[in-house]
Each structure stands twice: as C-alpha cells, then as structure tokens.
Amino acid sequence: MSRIKKLVFTQLVTLIAIILLTPCLAQARGFDDVPSWLRQAAATNKPQFAKNVSAVVLYKERRVVIDNDGKATTTEQAAIKVLTPDGAKEAATYVAYLTQTGKVRDMRAWLLRANGEVKRYGKDETVDQAAALNDVYNETRIKYISASSNAEEGAIFGYEWSTEEKAFVNQDKWFFQDDLPVVVSRYVLTLPTGWRADSVTFNHNKVEPNINGNIYTWELRDLSPIEQEDSGPSISSLSPGLAISYFPPSSSKTGASFTDWVDVSRWLTQLSDGQALPDPAIKAKAQSLIANAKTEYEKIRSIGEYVQKVQYISIQTNVGRGGGYKPHPASEVFAKSYGDCKDKANLMKAMLKAVDIPAYLLVIYSGDPTYVRSEWPSPQQFNHCIIAINTKEETKTNATVSHPTLGNLLIFDPTDDVTAVGDLPDHEQNSLALLVAGEAGALLKMPVTSPEANLLARVSDLTLTPEGAISGTITEESLGQAATRARAELKYLSKADYQKMIEKLFTKDTPQAKITKIEPLDNTAERSFKLSIEFNAPNFGQSAQNRLLVFKPLVATRHQVIAFNQPNRKQPIVFKTKAYKETVRVKLPEKFVVDEIPDPVKLTTSFGYYQSNYEVKDGNLFVQRILTLKASQLNPDQYSSVRKFFEQIHNSEQSPVVLLKK
Amino acid sequence: MKNWVLNLFLGLFFLLSPMIVFGEDWKPIDPAHTALKAPVVEKDADAEAIFWEVRVLDEVDGFTVRTVLSNYIRIKIFTDRGKDTQTKVEIPYLGSYKIKDIAGRTIKADGSILELKKDAVFDRIVINTNGLKIKVKSFAMPGVEPGSIIEYRWKEIRNDTVSLYSHLDLQRDIPIQQVKYFIKPLSLPNLSYGMRIKNFNTGAIPLNKEKDGYVSTTLTNVPALHKENYMPPDDTIQSWMLVYYSEDKNQNPDIFWPQYGKEVYEKTKDILKPDDSVKKLTASLLTASDGPKEKLDKIFFFCRTKIKNSRYTKLSDEELKKVKDITYPKETLKLGAGAPSDILFLFGAMANAAGLEARIARLSDRSKSFFDKRFTDSYFMKGAIIAVQVGTDWLFFDPASLYVSSGMLSWKEEGQEALICDAKQPVFVRTPLSGPEKSVRKRNGIFKITEDGSLEGTVKIQFTGHFDEDKKEDYDSDSPKEEQEALEAEVKKRISTAEISDFKIENVDSPDNPFTYSYHVRIPGYCQKTGKRLFLQPAYFNYGLDAIFPAGERKYPIYFPFPWSEEDHISFEFPTGYELENPSVPQGLTISTVGKYTVKMQYAAEKRLLSYQRFFNFGNGGSLLYPKDSYQQIKPIFDMIQERDKHVVTLKQKVDAQSSSTTNQQ
C-alpha cells in the first residue's frame, strides 16, 4: 500500500470511527440514569458571555486518590454547555493512559439535548486509539468519546472517567481551564495518612488548598474565556494551572519526589548516565570524525553533524516506569543509526566522551519558551532532550551559557537537523532547561541570539528594459535561524519541489517570471546559507500610454510577512528575533528619467527598527531596506504602536518607482 | 540414546529452520546495485525501488477462502532525504487480517549487512471502536545511510475474502526499476467465475504463465507519482491493476453493456413503479396544464425540499433506523426521509406516476476516473441518476444530491456516458456538460480609496452551478464560525493586512439559493503610494493570488473539472484632489474558442468614481482536458491573465480642477 493510500486509509477509518459511528450508536434514554452531579450542574445559572464564546464549562472536578503504594486513582467529571453551533466540538472528552502501568477503569458520557432527550455514551461508543501515530511504537493511548454531531445549541455534555496508574513520580499537573469560560473548577487530592502535599499556581494568584484531614481541595470559580491571538503567548502561559507535588513518609517506597532541581537532576542522571558509555565502535567513529578537526569547536561540529544525521525515530516503551526519560544505550543507537531526542543527545554525549570532551544531557520544553517554571522542580515540565557541552573559553558561541561550577556550556540540539552547531532553535531560546549533571545539575536560562546573528541579507542586481522587462540576479545570504529556515527548505523538499517553491516565490508578484538558475550553498561551519538565483520576467514594469513606466524594485516577496489586522488586542505580543537587509540595484532604461521614488522611511521603536532608502545615481536606482526585531514580549497596550510599525513597513514596501520617458 | 539424538536434531531443526529460510529467501545482491550512485528511473530521486514483487494468492482453506499477499521490496537510498523517508516502515491492516513473516535487512555501501531484529517489529492497534479495529505493524530499518540498500518483506493474510476488485498499485511514492505481480486465482472445480486482471495506465504488458498456477505481469522503469495543480484523477494517471472475478460472459462491449443495462432494469423496475400513495401525492403536486418539464421541476423540488436526505440532515435515531429498512418509494414518502438512493427512486417513481418514462441510468464518477466502455465490468459504474424521456430527448436528474443546481447534474456526473437501463434496449447517452455561464463566481465590491492609499468597502460574492455545489458540500457541516474562519482565511492569504468585519454567509445548506457571502473590509496600504500618486490594482479579487501554474515544467496532463465563468463588478471612489493619470485598460484576450477575458473600465470624473468590470470564462465546448505537451501554451495564457489582473491605474494629485472625463475601453 502506498504511503498516500495508507494515510487516506487511516484518515478514513478514523473519520468513520469518530465522526459517524459513535453518535449513531449512542442510545437515547430518559433522564433517570443521569448522575446527580450532572443534573445539578445542568441546573446552574450560567453567566452571560460575548457572542463568540462557543461553550461554557459549568462544572469540572478531578479527584485523585493516592494509596500507600503510590498508586493513583483519578476520576474526572465535567459538564459543558454548548452555546453556539461552533461549541458542538466541545461536547467531547478524552483520557490518556499507558498500557503497561495504567488503565481506564470506566468512561461514560451523557448528552442532555435541548429537546429534553438524553443520549448515553458508554463502551460501545468509546474510541480507543494510539496517541502518537508518528512513532514506530508508543504505549500511550487515548480513549475518546464525542457527542459533537448531536450537540446543538443549549445541549449539555457531561462525562465521567476514571483511571488507575502506578505513578513513577509523586506529582501531577492540572489546568483549571483551557480557553472556555468556567463556572467552577476543582482539583481534590486524597493522600494516605502521614503524607503531605505542596502546590504551585501558574498564571493566576496563588490558589491555597482547603485542607480537611488528608484531603486537599483547590478550587477556582467564574473564570473568563481565554482568547488566543496571533503572535501571542501559548495557552499554557495564559490558563490558570496547578502543579502538585506530594510527599510520602521517608520510609515509603513509592514514586520519586523532588524538593529542588538538584533532586530532579540526580534522578535523571541516575536514569541516563549508564547509557552513555562509548563502546569501541563509537570510539572509533568519534576518532575518525575528528581526524581533521583543528579546534575544539571543529571536533564538536564534526560529531554534532554526524549525530544530526542519525535519523529521528521514536520508540517509546516503559513510559510509566520512567522510560520516557531513559535513553537507549548509545552503542545500540549508534548501530541502528536511529533514535529519539534523548537517544541522539546521549549518543553525542558518548561520542564526545570518547574524544575527552565532557557533555551533559539537558532537558527542555520544545515549542514554548515560557512553559517551564522554576518554582516547580519536576521532570514532567520537559518534553525534549538536547545537550550541553563543556567547552573551553575559545569555543564560545552564540549558544553558550555559563554554569557556576562547570564553566562554559555550548548548548546544541542534535534532533534539529537544520540548526548548526553554535546556534539554537528559536523555539528553545530563552527557555529554562535542566542540566542533567547529578549534584551539579541546575535550571539554566537558554541564550537568546542577537538579531544580527540571524540576519537575512538579500542583494538584487537587476536591469530594466524600456519595454518593462527585467532580468538579473538575486543573492540571499542568511545566518543563524534565517539560515536554518533556508537549510530546511533545501533539506526537506525534493529537488523538484525546491525548484517549485522558488518559482512560486517569484511568480506570485511577477507573472511569467522564468528562473534560469538556482544555486543553493550551505555552509554549516559558518552557520550560514547562500542562495543565488538568476531570472527574467518580460512584463515586469507596467507601461502607461507609452510615457510612464511603473515598477516595484523589490522583486521577490519576503519569506515571512508579519501583519496585525485586528483592531484590538487582549494578549501580549511575542516577537522572535529577526533581522533582514535588502540591497537592490536596478539599471534603468535609457531615455527614461525618474519621476517619483518612494519617500525614505525610518522607524525606531523599543521592539524593532526599520529603514528604507531610495537613491538614483548614474542611471541606476539603489534601494536599501533594513528590518530588525528583538526577541521580546510586549503588553497589549503597546498594540497600536506595533500595528502602526508594520503598517508603515507594508506601505513603504508596496510603493513603486515611476519613470517618465524623456 | 537414538531417540535423544533424534529429538535434539528435530528440536534444532525446528529452531533453526526459520533462520535457514530467512537467510536463503533473500535474492542475491547485484554488486552493480551496491555500487549504484544515481537513480536509474528518475533523475534526482532520493530513493528508488530496485524491485518490488508481490504474490497474490487466492486459495481455499478447508471451508473458507483467503487471499495471501506476499510483498518483497528492495530499495536503494541515494540521499539523506531518501533515508529519512524510507527508514520507517508501517504496514496497516484490518484487525481481522494477519501480517506475518516480516523480515528485513540493510545492506550498507561496504557490503556489510544489518538484519532487522524480530523485537524491532512492533504491533499495535491504531484504532478500536465497536467492532472496527485497525492495526499497524511498524519498524525502522537499522543503519540506513545514503548508499545503503534496504529490503524487507511481509505476508498479509486476508481470511474469508478473495481478490474481488482489488486495486493493486504498480506505482509508489518513489520510482521503481521493476515491479512484478504474481497472481494465482482461486482454484475451484465448476466455478463459473473467472479471475480477471486489468491494467491501467501501463501500456500493453503481457501476462506470463509461471509455475504453480501463477501468472505474472511486469512493469519496468515506473516513475514516482507526483502532485500537480489541475491534474486528472489519480486513477487516470498512476499505473495500477484491478483484480476481480466475473462470470464468463461475453466481453464484447456491444453485448456486455446492454446485458448489464437489462439486469439493472430488472432489479429496479418494481421500485420505480409507483403505488397508489406515490400516484396520489404526485397528482396533488401537478396540474393538468403542466408540461413534462414543469412536472419534472415540481417533482424534483418536492424530493429535494420535502424529503429529508440522510446524507445532509441530522435524523433522529428512530428515523435512521427506519431509513435503513426502506425498500420502496412509498416508505420514503411515508417517513418523509430517506437515504440518497431512496430519494432517487422516489423521484423516478413519481416521474412514472406523472405519466413520464423514468429509468435508472448508471454512470461513473469523473472526479475519480474516466469511463471507458471497452472495459466490460460495472466496477466504475458506481453512480446512479434518473433519466426521463421527454420527446426524443433524455433528461437527467440527480435529486439525491441536495446542492446540485436545478437543470444540472453534479460536475462529476456531467459529460459522462450514462447507461440508460431498459428491458429491451439499454443505451449509452452522454450527459450534458453545463457551459461556463452555468457556474459563475459573481463578485461585487464597492470601495472607497483614502488619501493614504487605504481601501475600505463592502464585498459580496455569489456562486452558482458547480461552484455553488462544491462550496455547499465543503461548508454545510461546518459551524458558522468555522465557515467564517475558512472564508476569511482565503482573503487574508491574498491580502495579509485585510481587516474584515460584518462577515455574513447565506444559503450554506439551501438547495435552491446560491451560496453567498459578504463582508466589510479595510486594507491599509492597498494602493501603492508615492509623493504625488496612488497606484490602484482594480482587480481586487485577484490581488495577491498565486499563479495557477507556477512551475516551469509539467509531468501530467492539465484537467479542469468543469467550465466556469467569473464576473467582477467593482467600483472605487477616489479621494478628493486626485485624478486619473493617463488611464489605460488591460487588453482583452480570446483563448481560441475555449475562453475569453475582458476588462471594461469607466470613470465618472465628477463623482471620482471608477467602475471596473472583469469577465472571464473558460471551458467552452467542453474543452477541459489538455495533454501535457500543451502546458507551454496553457501556462502563458494564465500567466498573461494574471499579469493583466495586476494592471494598475494611476491617480495623480490634481494641480488644477479639470473637467470630467470618461474612459471606456476594452
């Protein structure tokens, strides 16, 4: 079966299973078997919301009971009222479980339809599916009930599920809400006698528990909806959340407990340290890789680039016993030439060890630099593993941080196969990451590279004919994360698709453009990428009445356009670091004079800088534009200045040049 | 002692035998393949299958039948991208099937071999719900790098089934040097059904007799399947094979199709026969003065608006249960609801009740394949419509498709050979293909331009014909918010700075009124601005659109699904103090007899009002399919139109007040 067919097959089956089958099989019955908590929640008077609020959570409660062996029995109940047709999709619930160490004991749901009918959802309507379809294997699964296709405005969806799990850490994390408003949301923890619990609150004033004997209850009420916006923080940085750690008496043999980050480092070190022993094959390979390296940086780069090419393949077993944090032995990963993030980082650690360069695993949260909170020491805050390499002073790069006792640490992500050694993916910059180094372990702030280190510089050398045809060369040289983007395009697209991508970039603004040469050149040693293009377009300039010739000297569109087109803003604005510089020379046709060129623009703000200049000299038009954005998070009250900044840039870049026939 | 030795020998034999078979079953590696540096079939391919062999065995096992598919593929890896795409292997299968005997190995460029270990093969349930179970076997090939050869094989056992209309691929996502199928049909004495094998898009390739009752077919140098804009359906492009069993009937199309048409007629004639309730209802809808077309219009309207169609309407559990039990139109009528086929039959029965001659007509789906009557099997004839004879003409109706415009069929059914079933003389009649004037995108905009170059105003877009049908099919199950987000995204994809408000969508699920949406828009900097001029692209609806054919080269024919038109009426009110400077109008373009592009502009100086009208149509005369070689003619036409859509008019700041002027060019 071809890959395309496989995909379609899987999607089709999923579609049939989730969308069609489930609701059809649900049984409609009377109100009698509806649990009292749902009836009570359904009777709640909901507050008034704006028209765009699709649903409201009337009641949500999670109850976790820990027994003396550390086994957690979790029950969650919730009632969600659908307010608009779009809210129908909220009439669904899922629960994740691990096949080895956990199980879903029970899962049921009810839909109280607006016409009084009650639909009941049980085992026959539950979909059980693999959670991570891209992994070769992953024991995490989810159970899912959806009542979406029957949930009209006014319907109330209630669900209840319970799970059992032998937890490997004595911790839990819970969000009081996602983006929907909430009337009441509650987390109840019951501990065995002699145990105690601590909690940390995220994105909200501290929520103190109500403690009744060994029962802890955290509760929030009347939470407003959270609206996510473009270039805004992720929902996990906005939604009120609770991180709970519980501690058994010292004699208890249950899951791990952590009081500080060194505790977490010790635990992770003990899981991973023995896996990084370089066997003879690894030693030989490492030595061969550095044979021509003259400096420490070159040695690290040679090994780093090798490990980047080790394919990312995820096989997750033993997750419920900490397997998600334990790399496969480096020798095994080396022999198979594949592994997941921790396997790759661990292999690199072993190879560096073989050439006497000390290195440590570093756990991080990939995708949201604000996710990890220092106030909650927990391995559960991380979803990714990279490496920190102990380097000499002369090996210092943009991706180096300083450790109080270990000195310089060069941070590198060998899973990201397009970010060069000495650079760090922008979604990891500015994050908190834990150095897995036993007693020396510490939570470290990841470096933020400067805009200049991520510069994209484009130089265009063009000739315009009296008929409006244009031809010439465009050369782009990019650094840092700009080079990463360019490198990714070259790496992930087939040669034919790469050509199509470049053609599309040009033909959007320049119909009939023909690309005659595409020459990409990757230079990972310099963390740079160069792309040279030759092209021509017959009718680029527009002639008016045989007198005017109008054209835009900025020939190719920019790779990424930032636009803010909402009138108001509720959430902060998040910028990643960015720098762009373009220089254009256009040889103008003889017998034409410049009638108009765009006005120069210079914008200076706290978050960015923009400048554009146009100049005519010796029959040539010279254009220069520069854009710099700093990595920053701005308050919503700065939105109007942000919006104005980008509007002015857009207007300036749209402006044409007008030539007049002599 | 002897027994002990014998037992040990047998034990070792059984333990070792899989390993022996394992080692022996791999075909020898050609050193030329190990040394191969570049692909043979397609230049620039990242990986290439050296061979792919599939054995298809239909067999009887006791009292049951089964199909066993044995796959064996050998792939050469040329690049890192090839490594990344080919290392991970997934074999999905239904829970009732079995996958066994998975084996694999990697042959590195230096000749060393890494075996796929048994514990590296994982089995898991992807999805499990109420009797439906989909599983997948997955593994990663060890030690793969550019220059490696990987090979793996597996066996799929499908119990209780045979190769009945099995769609077998001869093409993959990578090029293949040689693909070979060995096929062995079910061997049962006195079976009146024979296995048939039909290749598509392969050219003539012979079937060869092989040992053990197999036949084989081989295809060499098969390129990978690619995706392009406006390409014909996959089944008309890719190489594939249909394996099926059919009766040993006469395979002459002139005999086969009439016979098939008679069979369908016999099966449906009682259903299309109206009973008293259908007759009574029909009579109540019609008047004595109604001609055949009026009668059909009224019946069509009734079936689409008064009978709930289970494909489009949420029915209660009780209704759904009753719908499943429907056999005759009287039951559909009584329930007031039915499945699409029930509504089709009801329409036919009512037409017959009205004294007309209604038949079932079978036809294929043009979005999936192109029908060729020389293939004498009903496999592609999956669609059904109603044909009604009016005078000497046959009129076609598809009341089961709620959003098909009156007087039209779905575009997938138009321009198709429809087999009109009959007791005596079934005939093929080509369904009409609606012209460009039937499927129109009507777009209106009323805008004001401000001195800073911003554009603000209202937009209304209406779709008719096949556009209308497609939009409704796409959006009718979405919530209003999802509909709005999707349509707004279309605008913002073209114009990222667009600020949209007052978005309204109408007639999303109306069978009779056109899908329409409107919005208010403000676009800062829509006009390019210099010190004394504003430059306006009047073709607002084409602003920022990607080229239809951006690629310089083409692999496959070009195929437009249906003829269409675009009608744009846009007005711009200019800011005071500006006047048009040397206005010009983009030239029109006549595309042979196939299409036409026209732009008209008028300027009323006293009102500072520019009126822009753009008309485009394509597909006249049913010209929808163009060979690959014509790409170099088709692409420049659409490039030229895009270029003319980018035409700008210049507004210059007035020096003195000037008298009003009018421009009207074409």
Q: What's the arrangement of secondary structure elements?
A:
The complex is a heterodimer of chains A (662) and B (666).
Chain A: H1 3-25, E1 27-29, H2 36-42, E2 55-66, E3 71-82, E4 92-98, E5 102-112, E6 118-121, E7 127-130, E8 137-138, E9 140-146, E10 156-166, E11 171-175, E12 182-190, E13 196-202, E14 210-212, E15 215-223, E16 241-247, H3 261-272, H4 280-289, H5 296-309, E17 311-312, E18 315-316, H6 330-336, E19 338-339, H7 341-354, E20 359-364, E21 384-390, E22 400-403, E23 407-412, E24 432-436, E25 443-445, E26 455-464, E27 470-479, H8 480-492, H9 495-507, E28 514-523, E29 528-537, E30 542-544, E31 548-551, E32 573-575, E33 578-587, E34 592-596, E35 601-604, E36 608-617, E37 620-629, E38 632-634, H10 639-654, E39 657-661
Parallel strand pairs in A: 2-12, 8-18, 17-19, 26-33
Antiparallel strand pairs in A: 1-6, 2-3, 3-10, 4-9, 5-6, 5-10, 7-9, 11-16, 12-15, 13-16, 14-15, 20-21, 20-24, 21-23, 22-23, 24-25, 26-27, 27-29, 28-29, 30-31, 31-39, 32-38, 33-37, 34-39, 35-36, 36-37
Helix pairs in contact in A: 4-7, 5-7, 6-7
Chain B: H1 2-25, H2 31-35, E1 47-61, E2 64-77, H3 80-86, E3 88-94, E4 98-107, E5 113-115, E6 122-129, E7 132-140, E8 149-159, E9 166-169, E10 176-184, E11 193-200, E12 208-209, E13 215-222, E14 240-247, H4 253-268, H5 276-285, H6 292-305, E15 308-309, H7 317-324, H8 329-335, E16 337-338, H9 340-353, E17 357-363, E18 383-390, E19 393-397, E20 417-420, E21 427-430, E22 440-449, E23 455-463, H10 465-475, H11 480-494, E24 499-506, E25 516-523, E26 528-529, E27 533-536, E28 558-559, E29 564-573, E30 578-581, E31 589-591, E32 595-604, E33 609-618, E34 625-626, H12 631-645, E35 649-653
Parallel strand pairs in B: 1-10, 15-16, 22-29
Antiparallel strand pairs in B: 1-2, 2-8, 3-7, 4-5, 4-8, 6-7, 9-14, 10-13, 11-14, 12-13, 17-18, 17-20, 18-19, 20-21, 22-23, 23-25, 24-25, 26-27, 27-35, 28-34, 29-33, 30-35, 31-32, 32-33
Helix pairs in contact in B: 5-9, 6-9, 8-9
